[in-house]
Amino acid sequence: MDTIDDASKALDKLSAGVSYDVILTDARMPGMSGTEMYSRILEKTPEMKNKIIFITGDVMGFDIKSFLAQNNLSYLAKPFDIKLLKDKINSIIMVGPQENASTERAVNEHSR
User: Fold this and answer.
1) What pLDDT does 96 receive?
2) pLDDT in the model for residue 1
3) 104: DSSP letter
4) Which residues sit opposite 40 in a β-bridge?
5) Would you place residue 89 in the very low, low, confident or very high pLDDT band (cuts 50, 70, 90)?
6) Are 34 and 54 in contact (CB under 8 A)?
7) How far is 18 from 32, CA to CA, in rounded Å?
8) What is the mean pLDDT of the chain?
9) Which of 1, 6, 33, 59 sits at 20 to 30 Å (Cα–Cα) from 12?
10) Is 48 in contact with 75 (CB distance < 8 Å)?
11) What are phi and psi of 49, to 5 degrees?
12) What are phi and psi of 35, to 5 degrees?
């Protein structure tokens, strides 16, 4: 687990090949917005698409609400219950192995 207070540093870690099961990010950050960071993450590591959880105090702002809905992104509105965060993290971690297994089955069945 890493705690990084700068979006550019987070992107540098991903570019360097550091892998994460889940990324938590605020929608509004100094220097780079969460939406911009999300787009850059997908450019470099598209496999992270469903592994990002947005934390926001601005879920009612049209731009954030629209962005989250259009991209079908997971988010938590501040303040949030820690149990909800744990549940979201667990659901992402549990989906990963299932997606990999079903993809492997499909590839194996196709190659027969």
Assistant:
1) 61
2) 85
3) H
4) none
5) very high
6) yes
7) 20
8) 81
9) 59
10) no
11) -45, -50
12) -70, -40
Convert the pLDDT of each residue in 5-51 to its tens digit.
Answer: 888 988 999 889 898 999 999 888 888 888 899 999 999 889 899 99
Closest CA to 66 of 35, 31, 37, 38: 35
**CA-to-CA distance for 15 and 51, rounded, in angstroms?**
16
Residues recorded for the chain:
112
* Three state DSSP letters for 35-92: HHHHHHHHHHCHHHCCCEEEEECCCCCHHHHHHHHHCCCEEEECCCCHHHHHHHHHHH
Angle (nearest 5°) at CA 75 between 69 and 79: 130
What tokens appear for 39 in the block? 């787009």
Give kind and range of the element (H or E) at residue 25: strand 23-26
Backbone angles phi, psi at 102, to 5 degrees: -70, -35
102 has a pLDDT exceeding 80: no
